[in-house]
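Example A, followed by Example B.
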Amino acid sequence: MQFLWPQYLWLLLALPLLVLLYVALLRRKKKVALRYASLSIVREAMGARQSIRRHIPPVLFLLALAAMLVAAARPVAVISLPSANQTIIMAMDVSGSMRATDVQPNRLVAAQNAAKSFIAELPRHVRVGIVAFAGSAQVAQLPTINREDLVTAIDRFQLQRATATGNAIVISLATLFPDHNIDLQAMQGGRDRQRGFAIDGEKKPQKEVTPVPPGSYNSAAIIMLTDGQRTTGVDPLEAAKMAADRGVRVYTVGIGTVDGETIGFEGWSMRVRLDEETLKQIANKTNAEYFYAGTAQDLKKVYGTLSSRLTVEKKETEISGLLALGAALLSLLAGGLSLLWFNRIL
């Protein structure tokens, strides 16, 4: 714990003086009482229980005073608070390999079920958008707080060929920052890519972005789930740099086989392998985390972890108000007990 005004902590030295003053007053009061009654009568009247009670209200008042003095020093502590993340983009792989059954009942259904559970557990004020990607990426649902629309969008997924993980990140960023004029076509267009113009020359130039520290943008985050490696589209590490420059965290979730396996379906077969190394680099570049989910249950746990990470965050916060509230409650308790037991306030 740190203090913005630590000089006020010197006032705490007054507490021992108050304790000495309290003890002195008790002794004086005891001497006065002995003038008018015998010692045996005083002891019988007070009793052990009554003797302890008489000290409780003053002790509570001293604690309240200590809390107020510490509050005056403006303490700052790291505490967990509701996150400022208001928008989450879920970029989900819908490539053909997602029909593999190594994750029951298959990768796609397991991912859909986990995503829907994740959405259901988010606070109602958090907006969620859905981006589906395979050989290309498209917005399946613009950010919304309507959970029914999100579930409908997830249920409409159709499997396609190829995997463009970089495109998924770019489209997610374009959804989060519509005024940045992010042009995926221009990024894939050779010479025009450097200038930030679309190939047809009709779209606006991409907005120049002043890089900020990775992960510093607290109003949004991206969660990308995939079971393969990039086969087409924008370089995912280049797309990750775009996200890092804007301070957006890209949490990556890998599902499926790390070593690779051959998947067959309706007469055709394909070799798929999870590119964990690239997913880890994406997460590291954007100051986020990578998660691996080998089973449907693992996938649900991953989304549960992400839910807590994205809805609660630790940050340095001044807690003077909490200490002041505690001091007020202790003062009320001290006064209440004194009235209840002795018909006086302290």
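Example B, a separate protein, is given below in the same form.
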Amino acid sequence: MGCGTCTTAKDGIVAGCQHKGGCSSGGCNRMNVFNWFADLPLSFNENFNIVEVAFKKGARKGFYRNAQNLDLYKGQLVVVEAAQGYDVGEVSLQGELVKAQMKKRKISERDDTIRNLLRVANEADINTHLDIRNKEQEIMVRARAIARSLNLEMKIGDIEFQGDNKKVTVYYTAEDRVDFRELVKVYAREFKVKIEMRQIGARQEAARIGGVGTCGRELCCSTWLGDFKSVTTQAVRYQNLSINTDKMSGQCGRLKCCLNYELDTYNDALRSFPKQTDKIETEEGIAWLRKTEILKQQLVYEYEHQKGVFYKLSVNDAKELLWMNKANKKPKSLHDFAIVEAEKVDESKHEDLVGQVSLTTLEEKERRKRNKQRHQHKNKNKGKGRDNKKK
């Protein structure tokens, strides 16, 4: 299958952009892995016959053994074994990169649980696969209505039909344990298929649904991020970010995964900073720490009697001054060690641009607009009343 810009022949071959190892628009497969070995004429290991197959745009992936040594390519629809029956998916990866992915997930090549790849999908398999995908949205709406009618504290995030249309997996999130035995019976009577209920977390739900983050790009979890590492408030504190739950939380309601991306860099940079840096005593007075610029390896201090005048010190200079204080010595002034001495700033004219436009300000603006329109309409009616009295 292909994205909206691609065309598909009768045999399922993608005739679109023909990009090396993946779709150039990024719309064909979620969770893509770029195959850097696509142009190599021979594989490093010709006997390695395990391929990675993705289901429903990459939301679920699995490894299958190509026992028949079929000539496959990325994006090709194939039929694979399932626990009961068969399933239809896309070849997302093959060759040496599959071995690397299996090693990452700690799956052995000799694992007996690896199922077989049966055949390349024919036209009937492709048509059935498309029909199933087209009706999933309607079935999910109906499934949510049934769960709500039974007063179950759960949220159905997505459903996925098996390729042979004999089984449907319902993905749901719930805070507490849910007794869905009666729900499964109702689903089986309603949809006439085998039902499997699978509980997922809030991050997995966001990955399956997708969306656009505050950065303006598609969510990492729905495009390339395969595993979810725990994100704690320490990641926010180490990077000197303000703890604002509205800004730090993603669409899943948890702390954003991107808070971990630069955390190792900040931790490495923090190792060179001294432990206690709150204040430095000088003959001119006590200077208090106001800001730590971790990546620049600088500390910003301010005197109590000189509000708005900041002194930037390097980490080495700050260590030297703190060591002098421990030895009961005081330097003359921070001016002799400062990298940059900022001009005094009038804080009354300073505006905090971070979060300046919020939902509250927009609602206040809309309320003022409505009041102004109501006032104008009221004055207009008063004017009409005076004209009628004169007549």
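On Example B: The two ends are 77 Å apart (CA to CA).
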